Every structure is written in structure tokens, then in C-alpha cells.
Amino acid sequence: MKETRKFLEKIGLPRGDAYDLPSSAKRFSDGAQYRFEVPGIQGPKAMKALLDELERLEIHIHRVTQTKGIMLMGDDDISSMLELAEKAQVELILAVGPRATYDTSASVQTSEGQRMGYRLRGQEQVVRAIEDVKRAANLGCRSFLVYDEGCLWVLNEARKLGEIPNDCKFKISAHCGHGNPCSAKLLEQNGADSLNPIRDIQLQMLGALRQAVNIPLDVHTENPASSGGFIRHYEVPEMIRVASPIYLKTGGSVAKNHSWDSTEADARNRAKQVMLVKRVIDQYYSDASWSKKGSLSA
């Protein structure tokens, strides 16, 4: 194993998981260590309820993520969410719609076939995925949740060649199933602007990921019932210290699954979860630096 570890180090990768849990010196462009992201907000009514409740609680976030897919949204809904995002100074991330679970695949509904995740089947689905992004970009969206590594690569090429706006950003979903530094490095090289690793990733694994890449890591502080339902609030201070710059994905335990259609009441409960996580940070890592409202660039 010693030779293998030396080889990994030689090519710029960690020798293994970071069991010593070193502090990350990397930061967002504003110098902060962490930001908040609330996922699973599928439409403008839920988004407004979330933002109103956050304002009432006197706490701010930096990202709102829609997860069901652009193809399931009307233009008016997209435009309304973009207007809410601009007013609240948050980044709106829309999910690329086509995925295996929306396709005619029978395999993806089986216990073994589920391993394909939300990846795309066939080149026609790639075409449709690009069309999904083009449509939302034409309406003003610039941030997208991507579920397929090949789709990431081709969207990055489209960004470079002007097929889509060059200021588009791509976030890789936890549903891609990545959780090691080699995969993280590959995704960063292929255009990922942030990476959501597997939901149950441990602190020493996060530390190794951070050593391998510079892009922000998006980490679940809690999870829907369908992905384990576990809540990691007390681990958040160490997540920040070891993995900054980091987006804390908060509010997931309110939902039953990834594509849960959050009600306005659900959205308000997600806001409460943000408050609870912030309380833990303030008590156990009060020196951690939090991006100010409106800080959106990586």
C-alpha cells in the first residue's frame, strides 16, 4: 500500500482519507467558509414561503434548489422563481429534467437497476437535457443541477463554445453517487462548479475531497426519509472546518424523498432547520465565517 499511496501523492491526490481532519484554508471568493442552500423547493409559492419565513427569522441563505426538473415547470413558474431570487439576493438552481426515472426504463425501477441513478439513457436524452438548460437560460437562469457526468461534459463544452451563456454554472448532484477524491477531481476538470458528494460521507472522507479540489462542496446536513433520514447538525461545525468552502444543504429532513413537492408549510419548516443548524454553528464554531447576504460568486 505504501507504493500506491506514494503514487497517488505524486499525481496530486491525497494518500488516503484525512483521518487527522486538517482545517481547510480554502475559502469562497468573499473570504467566507460557509453558505446555506435549501433544496427541494419546486415552485414559486413554496419559494416565497421559504424566503418570507427566513426573513421573519432574521436569517439568510445563498441558494435555493429546485430538484424535480426544468421540463416539469412552466415558463411563468421559472420566471416567478427568478424574480423571487433576484429580490432576495439568492442563487436559484434548476435541475436538468430528463433522467432515467422519467424515461421508459424498466431497469431503473428494479433494486439493481437503481444503481444507474438519474443518469441519461441514449443520446436523445442528452439532446433533451441540453434543450432543458437552453430554455431555462433563455428565461434568465444561470445555475443548473446536473445528474449525469456525460451531460456535465457536454454542457461545459456548450458553455465554452457559446451554445449556452458562458456564465452558466453546474452543480453535481449527490445522486451521481460520487464520494472519493479521484471522482471529484475528474468532475472539476470537466466543468463542475460545485460538487454534492454522497449523503453519508464521513468527515475524514470530506477532508480528502477538499484536498483534491478547489470547487465548493455541497454537503447535506440532513436527509429525506428515502435516503436514510439521518440528521447531522452536530457535525456541521467540523464539516465547515474541514471542508470549506462549503454549502450546507439544509431542510431535507422535512421531505419524504428527493423530488418531494414541498408545500408552503414544508418550506417554512425548512427555514426552521436552517435556523437550527445556524444555532449549532454559533455555539460550537462561533469563529466560522458566514457569507453575507447576496454573496453569490464562488
From TrEMBL:
Designated name of the protein: Peptidase
UniProt organism field: Aliidiomarina minuta
